[in-house]
Amino acid sequence: MKLIKMSNIILIIITSIISLFYVVNDLMNNNIYDALIAFSIVPVMLLPYIIRKIFKVKINETIIFTYLIFIFFGHFLGSILNWYNTIEHYDKITHLISGIMTSFLALIILISFKSYNSKKLFNILFIIVFSLAIASLWEMFEFTFDKLFSKDAQHVITTGVDDTMLDIVMAFLGTIIFSIIYFVEEKTNYKGIIKAFIKELNDDGK
C-alpha cells in the first residue's frame, strides 16, 4: 500500500509539473483555452483526495491509483498532448473505459452512503443512470467550453452530433460490459474483480 501511495504522489507531481509547463507555454502564446485545459488536470487529479477530505469517504490508494491512471491517459495524453486528434479511435476507447470507471465510482457511492442494495437490479440501474449522467455532463462541459472559446472539441463542424453521441454510446457500452460482469459475478458468486472491489470497500468501511 505504501508503494501505491508513493506512486500516486509521484504521478500527480510529475503530471502536474509537465502540465504547468504547457500552461505557461500556452499563456505566452495567448492560447487561453489550451492553458485552461492543461491547468485543469491539477484539481482533477486531486479530486479523490478532496472528496475524501470533505465528505469523509474512505477511498483507498489502489482506487485512487486506478483513477489517476485513467486521468493520465484520458486527460493528459488525450487532451493536453492531443492524442485524441492524432491517434485514431483513441477518443472512443477512452470513453469506453470511462463507462467502466464511472461504474466503479457508482459502486463506491452506493457503498459509501450505505445504499448498496441486496437487489442486484437496483444496483445495476443506479450504475447505468449514474454513468450516463457523468457522460452527459462531460459532453455539456465540452459544449460550454466550445461556445465560450469558439472551439470544436465535440467536432460539431465536421461530424454534426455524431462525435458527441458516439462518445455517450461508448461510455454506455462500457457501463453495460461492467453491469454484465457484475451480474454474472453476483449470480454465480464468482469472486472476480468487481466482487473483490466491493469486498475491499466494505472492509475499508468497517
Strand content: under 5%
Envelope shape: globular
Q: Please give the largest β-sheet.
A: none
Order of helices and strands: HHHHHHHHHH
Structural class: mainly alpha
**Average pLDDT reading:** 90
Give the CA-CA distance, first to last residue: 18 Å
Provide the low-confidence segments as ranges.
Answer: none
Tell me the layout of helices and strands.
Blueprint lengths: L1 H27 L3 H8 L1 H15 L5 H20 L2 H4 L3 H23 L7 H30 L6 H4 L2 H27 L4 H12 L2
Describe the protein in words.
The chain is mainly alpha-helical. It has two domains: 1-72, no CATH class; 88-206, no CATH class. Helices cover 83% and strands 0% of the residues. It contains ten helices and no strands. The chain has helices at 2-28, 32-39, 41-55, 61-80, 83-86, 90-112, 120-149, 156-159, 162-188, 193-204. The longest helix has 30 residues, at 120-149. The two termini are 18 Å apart.
